[in-house]
Structures are given as C-alpha cells and as structure tokens.
C-alpha cells in the first residue's frame, strides 16, 4: 500500500486566550479596550503544555497496487507543513494599544491568552478531488461508468466497466473515497482529515464502506406526515467517529452552517467538517476535517459566517475564534473566552448579489458588529478581516443565549428571558424559562444547571421573537412570541415536551422535541400543528446562511397566465406570445427556496423543502373558505414577508394580493378590499371584469393567473347577480348600493393614478377605466337634479382623456344628449354641440336631463344657446347660419345674438336690419330692440335716429290700438292744465303721475326713452336705414306728432330741437307749463327729467348729456337741453350778470332774450292772471342795462313806457311797486352816471389841454435862448 507522509514542525510559544468579558465596572461607552493609557490592565496568561518537537503525520488512503498513478495522485492529498508563528494578537481587540506594553490595556478587561490554532492547508486536497472528478467524467463519457438515478432523494452510483479486475478495485476505492456526497452519493470517511497540528491517517476505504453498509442496514428514512414540508437529502450521513479521538464514538453533530457550495459541520468533540458541492450529480464531498483543539474536546456550539469579510466565527466551548473562508484556516486575529452565545443583528441580513446567501451588513470602516453573550456582560465587538475590537459592554451578567434585532436583543440567563435595549442599556423582564425552578441565593450553580431548561430564541417576522418555556424537559412546554415592546403578540405554540432545538421558517415554527428524534411543525398564524416528522436517530434543526433553490412545476402551473377577456383589439397570437414570454420568465425564477436544515449523525443533512408558498396559500384559502377572516390574516402576514426586490417575489406578492382582493370582494368586505385594489399592484381591469356587464369595453387583452381565473369568474357571477337583482337572499339584495358605491370609489381612485402608469400597459388600462367610469355613472340613473348632471359632466371632462369618441358614442346610445352637448363643447367640437342642442330645442330628440337642467324653461335654453354660440364661434358665416335659424324659430333671440357685444367677429348691422324688416309681423319690436342695443350698448350713435323713429312708431301704434291709453293721456294732461299756479314743470308732473294714471307701462317707458334720446340728438340727425322715411329725424317726428296731439310735451321737445323757440313758448304756455316757458326765455333751455327704467339707457343719456360733452350755445343752441337737476332757477339781481351756457349774453342774444320774455309776458297778459304778471315783472329783467355801453335814455324810457302800457288798467299798482321802483331807479342811476361821466371827461380834457400848452411854451423858450 502506497503511503505518503508529510511532517510539520511547530514552534512552542506562550500563547493565551483573550478574555474580553470585562469587569462589572467596565464603561459601556468605551470604544476600544485601550480607552485610556493610564489604567492598568490585568493580563492573566494560562499556559498550555505544548510539545515543541511534536511531529504528526497524515496517511493517505490505502490504494490497490494495480491502480494507475493518476488515480493514486487524485486520491492523495499533500498537506504541506506550515509554520505558524505564535503571537499575542492584542492589536485585534484594542485599537490604540501600545504593542510593547500590554499593561496599557483597559483595566476593566481581563485578558487571558490562549495558544493559536495551527492550520493545515486544504488546497491540495481540493485539487485532488477535482482531478478525480475529471477522470470520472472522462470514463462516464466513454461508457465505463453508468449512473442510475433510482430515487429523487437518494442516488446510488453503480459502476460497471469492461476493464480488467485489477482496475475494478481501483474504481471501487475511488467511489468509496467520495465521502459526504449529497443526496446522490454515499461517501465514506476516508478523505483526508485535517486536525490542529497533525493529519489523521486515512482509513481503509473498504472498512469505511462496510461501516456505511452497516448503517444502511439499521437506518430508515424519516416518517413524514402530510404537511408543508418534504425532506431532500444533501448529505446521507455524517462521519463523526474519528480513531484519533476516543470520545468520538458517541459524538453528535452540534452545529451546522452553509455558504455557497460549502457546508460546515461542528461536532460535540470539537471537530469541524468541511463539505463542498462538486456538482448536482455528485453532490457534497467531505474535503477536510480539523480539530478545534488538540488537547480538549470542546463541542462546536455555533458557527457564524461573515462572507463579506471572508471570515467565520466559531464558538467551541466558551472560546470564540476567527477563521478564514472558505477553507477555515485560522485568521490569527485573536480569541475571546467565556462566550456563551453569539448573534449578529438579524435585521441587518440581506441577500448577496446572486440572491443565494444571507449576509450580514458590512461597513468598510467599522466592519461587522457582533453581539457576544458572556458570563459577565453582553459585549458588542466589531469584527474586521484583521481585527476584533470592543465597542462597548452592557451590564447583563450570566447571559447564555440571545438574538439581536436592530436596537433590541432578546437575551436569556439560566432562569428567564429579558428584552434588552442595546442603545439605552435597559432591560424589560419577560418570563422565566422554567416554571418549576426559581433560583435562590442558596442554590449552587451545579444544581441550577441540572434543573434549568436551555433557553431557545429565534426571530419571527420583522419585530418579534419566539421564546421557549416549560416546566421540565419531559413535560409539555410552549413557545411564546413577543414583540420589541415586550408584549405577547401572537398565540402560544404548544409542544408535548421541551424542544432541544428550534427554528422559525416563517410562517412555521420547527422544533425538535426532547426525545431528539421527533420533529413537530406548527403554524405561527393559528398555532396549530401542521406536520410531524419521526427519525431513527437524534437530530437537530438549524437555519443557515445559504439559500437552497429547487425548481418546481407546481408553481409554474399556478402562476402561469391565461386569457380572462379579449374584445379583439389584441390579436390572439399576440396574447399567446405574452403568455409564452411570461412562462419562460417564471420558469427561471420560480424556484422553491429554503435555508432550514435537519441534521444528525445517521440522518446526515436534509433540507426542509417547503411546499410552494402559493400552492400552500391557495390550498389554505380553499379549505377555509368559510373562515375568510383567518385566511386574510394569514395571507397578509405572507405579504409582509414577501421580497418584492426580486422578480419572483414581485409575482408572488401580486398573486397573494390578488387572492386577498378576490376573497374580500367575494365576501363583500368592500372597506378592506378598497386598499388592495387601489394601491396600484393589481390590474384594475380584473375588478372591472367582475363588476361590468359588458366586457367588450375591456381593452388590451386581460391576462391573469390561470389558477385564479375560475375564482375571478365565480366572484363575477355573485356580483352580477346582486347588481341584476337575480338573487333571493334579502341580505345580499341590500348590498347592491354598497356594491355600486365601492365600484365608483374604485374607479375614481384609479383615475388619480394616471401619472404613475406610463407606456402601453398604462394606456390600455386607462382606456378601460375611462369607459368603465362613464358606463358606471350612466347605469346609476341618478341624474335627478342639476348638481348631479354637472358632476357627471365635469367627471367626464376631467377623466376621459383617451376614449373621447367612444365616450360620445356611449352618451348618444344612452340618450344622454345634453351631456353629449357639453362634452362636445369640451372637445372643441362646437358645431356638433350646437346642432345637438338645436335638435333638443325643437324636440327632434328628447332628454330628461335637458329639461331638468333648464327647469323646462325655454328662455333659459335659448339664453344658453346664444351664450354658447357667442363664446365658441368667431367667424361671421357661423353666426349668420345660426342667426338665420333663430330668426325663423326664435326671432327674439336672433336679435340677442346679432346684438351681443361679446361677438368675436363683425356683423353687418344694415344686413341684420334688412333681415329683421323681412319678418312679416314684428309684434315683439325686434328691430327696436336691436337698434336699442346698437345705440345704447354698442355706442353705434349713427343709428340713434332710426331708434327714435322706431320708438315713436311703436308708441303711436300702441295709441291706435289702445283707446284706454288715449283717454289716460288726455286725463293726465287735463289734470296738469287745471293745476293752480305755482306748479311744477310738466316733466316732473309726468314723472309722478304717469305711472299712476297710465296703466300701460311699456308706453311710459317708450315715452321716457324717446324724450331722453331726442334731448341728445342734433338738429341734423338723419335716418340711415329706411329709404321711405324723411331723412331728417326731428322733422319726421314732428310730422307724425302733429297728427296725434296726445303727446304735447314730446312735440315741444322736437320743436325746440328744430330751433322754433317762439313756437315752443307758445306750446308751453298752452300746456300751462309757464315755468318751463320762462326758463326757455331766460336760458334757452328746456328742463327735462324723465325716469329711465333701463339703467343702460340712463347711463347712456347721462354720458351724452354731461356738460363736457355739450357744445357752445352760440355755436349750437339746440344742444343745450339739460336734465332738470342742471337747471338753475333764474332770479334777477341788480349786480348779477345774466349768463347762458358758457358765457355772457351777446347783443343778439340779449335782444332774443327780451323778445322771448315779452312773448311770455304777452301770454300772461292775455290770461289776465295778476299773479303771473306780478311774478314776471318782479322777477325778470325785460330790458337790459349795460354799464359798459352808452345807452340812449330816451330809448330806455320808451321801452319802459311800452311795458307800462301793456299792464291792464285795473292792475293794482302795489303789485308792480317793485318793478317800477327798480326800473326807475335804474334809469335814474343810468342818467346820473352818464352826466357824471360827461363832467369828468370835460374836466380831464381841460387838464390835458393845459399840460399840452405848458409843454409847448417851454419848447419855444428853449429855442429862443439857445446859445450859438
């Protein structure tokens, strides 16, 4: 037998264990062990007796002599003899300590230095395995080896060859040397085994084969009940026995971890077994085994992998050491003793880039933070690739187990659990581990250990912990789930005995009971037992870092897509392509994953392969159809832990969400269902499919999960039965309003998400949503008031942005013509809107909404039509088109259209007036109305003459038609004439009495408007439209009024405007309006105050009658008619100059004034009314005295004499005393003034002559005496 041996030399040195437990007075805020240099540290060195010259050998497996050299080489592992320098790794646990002064360490840290572990390289062993596999592959390709896959869980490799029997032995040896193969291979223990300091000899592979055969004879597969898991074998059995370690005969597997293709197994005798996965066929192979300590058999309690820094923390006994990954060579960065447990922050775990491993969060600056539970405290350390440094200690002595989650940790002593705040250093006591034992001060530690139960802690969900507690190991126990507030958050999980190991694979808790061979699985949701597994041997369960993935056809069948609805806008082959693409996608991502392992010496390593979550959830929903509340809670829990960052996680989350949504809608829990259907994760077309009656408006081809298609159709059937009143259950019938309300809220809610959804998918979704929204509101039939109609119209305007034409068609099909009009307007299709509106006006089509909106008022309808035309058309052609239609159908509103000041185009007014003239009967005064708008509102002053003629014609027509009106006018005038003097002017009298006496208000209004319009026109104002009329407005009016004498004051105004003042005074005196006659004689004005019932006309008259708009009197006297409020009572004063308009009266004006006054006086004399004569003589200057002009005294006396002669002889003298005295005094004053001026002038003349003569004499004297 060939044997290769390598010896290794190992130096002796004083190595020690590093105790970072710290004293109780250690500062929690200490960042490093070397916080201050002045503190003295206690360094205790525990020396181990180490043989400096110990040489250890490792023998390779015995091989048959007839094996080829290549095969021998592949089965032999050369383990190099490496020297490991001994050192004290103090720099690992302190950041700024002095290398040469260990005493500078923190005084609160007790450090014991242990010897470092030597390492045997495994690289050559790995190379040997690779060469062996290459050789095997070559032989398989040549047909020398055939592989029979007879079992999915376990594959035995049978070898056949046509080689000689000599090579057969060699091949059998090669097969047997593949120890630790997974579910495909049975491997023996003959691989090279690494120990600390020496290599174990490789046993005879035949012996190992016999051992395995013996195991197979007595070992049976686990008995598994139906439930959420199946078991997949990764490693058939674990070779824990080692001839070098006597204690290993009864050794057990105590810990396990996995990363990528590596599985690391720890045993109770301190060995670390490293398995490596060769490929899917061969599986896992044992490539190395090494002892943690050569002299002691400390069990490997825990293996914590830190792949982000290529390190592993191994807890053996109470010693924590660091190794390199993946080969588990010592990292030489120190060890920590008195450690009972270690935990990373579970909330910091995340998937690596390949989504195949859970790794702890790594900070390049601070490394990875680990929580150590030690005898004295809870210790936080920072692990980097080259150091372990203390962060701080928390005062929590005797901690033996714990799990950290962010700022909290669930920790345990031997007797109870606590929730520890890692930031504030506070704890919340929870409950004892064992209810049968309460430790007292008199109890010793050994007694406590015997009676106390081992605390088991495992994280649950996102903020919870599962804690085990009981009485004794054999009695029933339970699992309590608490949150980070210390409250019990779920129900209690019952166990028949206290578990020996425990994990959570959400939503299940997996526990190994005290017997060690019975595994029970409970649901965390309802705490019911879901499955039981019975094994032949003792086993444990553990959750590892690696995530094992397996393909599963059930998932693919469950989440593949099928067509739910297609209205034909998408071709069938396009939908098939979409389904095919999705199937290809899910076939790559729909693997079943698990990181939960079951392991034992005889059972090997098996994976808990979960029943696919979606399969399990669908089955759960089907079995608990009558208990929807429980199902919903379970499904919600599943959503919370779904990983939406992966493609499959997103599909899984969508599936569960859709399932919840369907259950809630089917159960009519609309309040809860709303959030699921509105959050944007579900295709809203699915719910539209359920609620809509006509699926032809579902666009884009609706695909859904094939396994849920039937459930969707069942829910649709139920909802449609409620909506169509096809259900007999009275309770469900009452839900109809709730169904409609939910559907409306759903549609409206989705309309506000338009900005989120882009691309083709968003386009087809909102096409469907828009049409569905319109259809749902139409089906409601609740348009009973204007508010509801407006809301529906506004809703369509706001939300229908894509399906505009389809929406119009739907509105027309449902006879919602008025809403269609408004929507046409919104779309800018004004012609369509007006045409539809006109049909509604003429009752060619009927719509109740139209009548409701306009309260069945035709005037409101026509006003709305005019407003719409004015606002939406800017071309003359369209205005004429609709205007001519209105002239024939509704002529009154045609005038409003043509006369609107809001028109956006110019309309030929002459053409409009000609069109109005063609109307056979203008009983409504359309032309008058149009002219009034032109003049008053549009300030087209050139048409004022036509307006006056139309008003006068209208008045005369009313007089002819109404005899009562004629009588009323005659009565009103006769009453005025018999009024006693003094009396008001006729315009004021008319203002008060016209509305009392004349019942025809329209006539009064026309009269007032006409008087006001006449007051502002000029004498030359023309008629410009009617060729048959006299061109001059005033003369035309005069001729018409002379025929009808019932309007005397109107005739007076016209005569006045024509300039016939004398005739005007005669008419006023005949009317007995003497005050107006005197005013005209004195000021050339006629007072006018007529009420304007139309504020627009009133404003127009005031604007054109304003003093700044008047012309000078001397230029155009007939422009000087003002309203009564501008007429000033004329009173003769001695020193007062008589003015009119804008200046002093000229000579001609003064003469006219005297003439008009004398004309008034003559009328008074003819009436022989002493009061009128007295008032006139005492208040008016019949002739003028001008101080600035020389007047003939004789002429003045002559005028005075004429006035006196006109006064009746019987007129009392005292009544004219004032007239006589004033005028005589004035004449005398004028005479005296003339004499005085004459005398002064004569005296001044004499003075000037004297001065002249004196000057002349002075000059003559100067010339006479001038020197030569």
TrEMBL record:
Biased composition (Low complexity): 98-116
Region (Disordered), start-end ranges: 1-209
BP term (GO), one: endosomal vesicle fusion
Ranges of residues in domain CNH: 250-548
Name the UniProt record assigns to this protein: CNH domain-containing protein
Lineage, opening ranks: Eukaryota, Fungi, Dikarya, Ascomycota, Saccharomycotina
Listed GO CC annotations: cytoplasm; membrane
Extent of Basic and acidic residues compositional bias: 186-209
Ranges of biased composition (kind: Basic residues): 1-13
Residues of the signal peptide: none
Location relative to the cell: Cytoplasm
InterPro entries tied to this protein: CNH_dom (IPR001180), Vam6/VPS39/TRAP1 (IPR032914)
């Amino acid at each position: 037998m060939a044997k290769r041996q390598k010896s290794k030399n190992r130096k002796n040195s004083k190595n020690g264990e590093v105790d970072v437990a710290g004293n109780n007075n250690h500062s929690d805020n200490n960042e490093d062990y070397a916080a201050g240099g002045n503190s003295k540290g206690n360094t205790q060195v525990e020396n181990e007796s180490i043989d400096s010259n110990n040489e250890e050998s490792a023998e390779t497996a015995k091989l048959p002599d007839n094996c080829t050299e290549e095969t021998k080489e592949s089965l032999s592992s050369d383990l190099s003899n490496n020297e490991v320098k001994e050192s004290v790794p103090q720099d690992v646990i302190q950041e700024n300590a002095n290398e040469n002064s260990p005493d500078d360490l923190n005084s609160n840290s007790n450090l014991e230095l242990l010897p470092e572990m030597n390492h045997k390289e495994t690289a050559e062993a790995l190379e040997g395995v690779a060469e062996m596999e290459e050789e095997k592959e070559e032989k398989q390709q040549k047909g020398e080896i055939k592989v029979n896959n007879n079992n999915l869980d376990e594959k035995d490799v049978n070898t056949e060859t046509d080689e000689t029997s000599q090579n057969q032995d060699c091949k059998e040896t090669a097969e047997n040397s593949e120890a630790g193969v997974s579910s495909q291979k049975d491997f023996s223990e003959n691989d090279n085994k690494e120990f600390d300091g020496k290599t174990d000899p490789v046993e005879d592979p035949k012996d190992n084969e016999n051992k395995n055969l013996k195991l197979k004879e007595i070992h049976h597969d686990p008995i598994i009940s139906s439930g959420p898991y199946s078991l997949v074998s990764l490693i058939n059995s674990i070779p824990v026995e080692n001839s070098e370690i006597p204690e290993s005969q009864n050794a057990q597997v105590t810990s396990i971890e996995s990363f990528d293709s590596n599985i690391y197994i720890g045993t109770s005798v301190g060995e670390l077994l490293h398995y490596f996965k060769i490929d899917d066929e061969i599986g896992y192979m044992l490539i190395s085994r090494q002892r943690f300590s050569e002299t002691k058999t400390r069990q490997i309690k825990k293996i914590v992998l830190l792949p982000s820094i290529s390190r592993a923390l191994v807890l053996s006994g109470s010693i924590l050491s660091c190794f390199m990954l993946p080969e588990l060579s010592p990292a030489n960065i120190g060890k920590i003793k008195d450690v009972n447990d270690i935990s990373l922050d579970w909330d910091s775990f995340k998937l690596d880039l390949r989504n195949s491993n859970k790794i702890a969060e790594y900070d390049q600056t601070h490394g990875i933070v680990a929580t150590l539970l030690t005898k004295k405290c809870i210790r936080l350390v920072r692990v980097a690739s080259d150091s372990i440094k203390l962060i701080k200690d928390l005062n929590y002595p005797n901690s033996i187990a714990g799990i950290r989650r962010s700022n909290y940790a669930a920790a345990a002593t031997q007797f109870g659990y606590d929730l520890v705040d890692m930031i504030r250093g506070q704890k919340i006591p929870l409950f004892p581990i064992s209810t049968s034992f309460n430790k007292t001060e008199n109890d010793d530690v050994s007694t406590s250990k015997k009676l106390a139960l081992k605390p088991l802690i495992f994280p649950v969900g996102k903020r919870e912990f599962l804690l085990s507690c009981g009485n004794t190991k054999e009695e029933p126990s339970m699992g309590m789930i608490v949150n980070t507030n210390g409250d019990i958050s779920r129900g209690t999980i019952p166990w028949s005995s206290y578990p020996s190991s425990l994990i959570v694979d959400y939503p299940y808790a997996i526990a190994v009971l005290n017997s060690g061979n019975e595994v029970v699985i409970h649901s965390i949701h309802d705490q019911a037992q879901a499955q039981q597994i019975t094994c032949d041997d003792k086993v444990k369960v553990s959750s590892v870092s690696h995530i094992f993935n397996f393909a599963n056809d059930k998932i693919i069948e469950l989440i593949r897509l099928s067509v739910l609805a297609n209205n034909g806008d998408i071709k069938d082959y396009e939908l098939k392509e979409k389904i095919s693409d999705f199937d290809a996608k899910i076939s790559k991502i729909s693997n079943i994953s698990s990181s939960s392992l079951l392991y034992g010496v005889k059972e090997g390593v098996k994976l808990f392969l979960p029943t696919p979550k979606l399969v399990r959830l669908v089955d759960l929903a089907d079995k608990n159809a009558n208990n929807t509340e429980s199902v919903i809670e379970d499904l919600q829990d599943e959503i919370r832990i779904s990983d939406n960052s992966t493609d499959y996680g997103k599909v899984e989350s969508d599936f569960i969400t859709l399932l919840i949504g369907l259950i809630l809608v089917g159960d009519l829990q609309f309040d809860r269902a709303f959030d699921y259907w509105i959050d944007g994760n579900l295709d809203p077309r699915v719910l539209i499919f359920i609620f809509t009656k006509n699926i032809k408006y579902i666009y884009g081809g609706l695909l859904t999960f094939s396994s849920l298609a039937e459930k969707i159709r069942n829910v649709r059937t139920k909802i449609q039965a409620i909506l169509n009143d096809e259900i007999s259950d009275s309770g469900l019938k009452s839900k109809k309003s709730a169904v409609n309300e939910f559907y409306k809220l759903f549609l409206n809610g989705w309309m506000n998400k338009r900005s989120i959804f882009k691309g083709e998918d968003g386009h087809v979704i909102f096409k469907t949503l828009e049409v569905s929204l319109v259809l749902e509101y139409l089906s409601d039939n609740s348009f009973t008031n204007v508010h509801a109609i407006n809301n529906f119209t506004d809703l369509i305007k706001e939300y229908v942005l894509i399906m505009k034409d389809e929406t119009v068609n739907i509105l027309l099909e449902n006879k919602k013509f008025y809403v269609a009009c408004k929507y046409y307007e919104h779309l800018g299709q004004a012609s369509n809107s007006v045409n539809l509106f006109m049909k509604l006006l003429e009752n060619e089509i009927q719509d109740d909404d139209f009548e409701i909106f306009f309260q069945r008022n035709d005037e409101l309808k026509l006003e709305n039509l005019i407003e719409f035309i004015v606002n939406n058309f800017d071309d003359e052609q369209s205005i004429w088109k609709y205007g001519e239609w209105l002239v024939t159908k509704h002529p009154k509103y045609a005038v409003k259209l043509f006369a609107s000041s809001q028109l956006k185009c110019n309309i030929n007014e002459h053409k409009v007036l000609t069109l109005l003239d063609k109307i056979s009967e203008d009983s409504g005064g359309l032309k008058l109305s149009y002219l009034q708008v032109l003049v008053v509102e549009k300030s087209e002053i050139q048409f004022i003459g036509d307006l006056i003629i139309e008003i006068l014609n209208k008045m005369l027509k009313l007089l002819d038609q109404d005899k009562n009106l004629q009588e009323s006018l005659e009565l009103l005038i006769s009453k005025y004439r018999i009024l006693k003097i003094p009396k008001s002017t006729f315009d004021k009298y008319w203002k008060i009495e016209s509305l009392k006496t004349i019942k025809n208000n329209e006539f009064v209004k026309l009269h007032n408007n006409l008087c006001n319009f006449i007051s502002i026109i000029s004498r030359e104002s023309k008629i410009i439209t009617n060729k048959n009329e006299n061109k001059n407005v005033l003369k035309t009016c005069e001729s018409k009024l002379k025929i009808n004498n019932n309007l005397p004051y109107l005739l007076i105004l016209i005569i006045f405007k024509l300039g016939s003042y004398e005739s005007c005074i005669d008419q006023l005196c005949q009317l007995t309006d003497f005050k107006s006659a005197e005013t005209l004689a004195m000021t050339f004005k006629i007072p006018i105050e007529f009420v304007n019932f139309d504020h627009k006309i009133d404003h127009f008259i005031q604007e054109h009658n304003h003093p700044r708009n008047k012309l000078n009197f001397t230029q155009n006297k007939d422009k000087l008619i003002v309203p009564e409020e501008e007429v000033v009572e004329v009173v003769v004063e001695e020193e007062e100059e008589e003015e009119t308009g804008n200046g002093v009266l000229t000579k001609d004006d003064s003469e006219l004034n005297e003439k008009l006054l004398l004309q008034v006086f003559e009328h008074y004399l003819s009436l022989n009314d002493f009061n009128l004569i007295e008032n006139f003589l005492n208040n008016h200057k019949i002739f003028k005295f001008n101080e600035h002009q020389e007047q003939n005294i004789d002429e003045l006396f002559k005028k005075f004499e004429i006035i006196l002669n006109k006064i009746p002889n019987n007129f009392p003298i005292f009544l004219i005393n004032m007239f006589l005295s004033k005028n005589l005094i004035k004449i005398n004053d004028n005479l005296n003034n003339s004499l005085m001026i004459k005398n002064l002038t004569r005296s001044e003349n004499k003075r000037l002559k004297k001065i002249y003569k004196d000057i002349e004499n002075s000059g003559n004297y100067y010339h006479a005496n001038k020197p030569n």
